[in-house]
Write a structure and sequence with these properties.
By secondary structure, the chain is α/β, with parallel strands linked by helices. The protein has two domains: about 130 residues, Response regulator (Rossmann fold, 3-Layer(aba) Sandwich), CATH 3.40.50; about 210 residues, Methylesterase CheB, C-terminal domain (Rossmann fold), CATH 3.40.50.180. The strands form three sheets. Strands 8-9-7-6-12-13-14 form a seven-stranded parallel β-sheet, with helices on both faces. A five-stranded parallel β-sheet has the order 2-1-3-4-5, with helices on both faces. Strand 1, helix 1 and strand 2 form a beta-alpha-beta unit. The longest helix is centred in the middle third of the chain and has 18 residues. The chain is elongated.
């Protein structure tokens, strides 16, 4: 069996040792080197040619983001960010995903919910997924991207160019789920959505310390209003509701209104929030007025829920294999007949908006 070769980049000797022990505990993985900084990492990449890199954000000299940006421009390779889960770090990690990192995981802690063994399993799974992931092209520099996409008016005009406007009176609601690679896929999808869009409810597999930053980041880039769902909000046109990382997101009916609902129930498909939980509520409450979208992600969360949506009369769309970072969730949904149409990510917003018109 050919092992996946991993290079660890972290300024902490203790962390390098701990990650090495964890990774080498799996028969299919092997740590071939460990570097304390970007300079050492560059040399080891040249000499060792690893399959996957784990990368810390905070390092002496060139920090992790600057190193990642250069790496993805000159020698693109699968990268898993390993960083602490804090508000400040969440913004940095989201930027790392924008630059081309496949995934991220928090640094191991003594209070990790399900022990260090569970952490090691999650890390190994993310490394395996990263190796097989489709790497995206190099993104635009941060400054120019911000200038090009910071204006809500420009984004809305671009999204509605050549298309009839959405009428909020038609009652359609969009439900979207994603996992690995989803932060950038969701961003690209929403950049093609007009300001007066149908309500959109989204589940992205992400820790709770990240979803607030994720919603805020999308709100600054996209034409619709983007918020982290708090529960019991009236579902309104022109608003995108992101599931918080600590709770399942559902839709429910109260009188003549549709409201968001949060639940701390047990994880489904190992996730909370779960895409299946959101899609199931769409099938039960909204039925044929729903539109389901499943984007890039590892695993099968959302497949059965989307099938129930389609059986209830909803339109359903899946991202195609070529444009996915990881063709896992869309593939599972497609194989069981849950996906009505498959489209490249760059076409998805236009196709979905055509369906709701």
């Amino acid at each position: 069996m050919k092992k996946t070769r991993v290079l660890i980049v972290d300024d902490s000797a203790l962390m390098r040792s701990l990650l090495t022990t964890m990774i080498n505990g799996f028969a299919d993985l092997e740590v071939v080197g460990a570097a304390p900084d970007a300079s050492s990492a560059r040399e080891l990449i040249k000499t060792l040619a690893p399959d996957v890199l784990t990368l810390d954000v905070h390092m002496p000299g060139m920090d992790g983001l600057a190193f990642l940006e250069r790496l993805m421009r000159l020698r693109p390779m699968p990268v898993v960010m390993v960083s602490s889960y804090t508000g400040e770090t969440s913004e940095t990690t989201l930027r790392a995903l924008e630059l081309g990192a496949v995934d991220f995981i928090g640094k191991p802690r003594s209070d990790f919910p399900n022990s260090m063994e569970a952490y090691a399993e999650e890390l190994a799974e993310k490394i395996r997924t990263a190796k097989s992931a489709r790497l995206r092209g190099a993104p635009a520099p941060a400054a120019s991207a911000g200038i090009a996409r910071s204006s809500r008016a420009m984004t809305a005009a671009k999204a509605t160019n050549g298309a009839s406007p959405y009428s909020s009176s038609n009652g359609k609601i969009i439900f979207l789920g994603a996992s690995t690679g989803g932060t950038e896929a969701i961003k690209e999808f929403l950049l093609g959505i007009p300001e007066n869009c149908p309500p959109i409810l989204i589940v992205q597999h992400m820790p709770e310390s990240f979803t607030t930053s994720f919603a805020r980041r999308l709100d600054g880039l996209c034409a619709p209003r983007v918020i982290e769902a708090q529960g019991n909000e009236r579902v309104e046109a022109g608003t995108v509701y992101i599931a918080p990382g600590h709770s399942h997101l559902r839709i429910r009916r109260s009188g003549g209104n549709l409201l968001t609902e949060l639940s701390g129930a047990e994880p489904v498909n190992r996730h909370r929030p779960s895409v299946d939980v959101l899609f199931d509520s769409a099938a039960e409450v909204v039925g044929r007025q729903a539109v389901g979208v499943i984007l890039t992600g590892m695993g099968k969360d959302g497949a059965l829920g989307m099938l129930r949506m389609r059986q209830a009369g909803a339109r359903t769309f899946g991202q195609d294999e070529v444009s996915c970072v990881v063709y896992g969730m869309p593939r599972e949904a497609f194989l069981i007949g849950a996906v009505e149409e498959q489209w490249p990510l760059e076409e998805m917003a236009r196709k979905v908006m055509a369906a709701v018109r």
